[in-house]
Input
Amino acid sequence: MNYQKLDAALATALNDVQNSQETSLGVFIHTEPILDSAATSFLETLGVSGVTSGKDIFTATLSPNAISQLSEQPWVMSLKRSQQLRLVNRRINTGKLGV
Output
């Protein structure tokens, strides 16, 4: 695995996963803008959807094993952890404004 291509959040998440074959990590895959057919096929084999030439950022849910394989590809620039955002339902208490 090429850890230089992983952001800190993804590297940390990889250490916490028990099963290296389980597709459990959401990632952003940053690639070179123009992918050849071999790179396109490789991404599609891993289950990445929407792979088209000219596009350079893809999202996917991958296993640690797949992330390791991707990190070794020369056309992959970086891999970043994607996390589901949560809405925060709380009121901001402004109190009384004034002197």
The longest helix spans residues 8-16. Strands lie at 25-31, 57-62, 76-81.
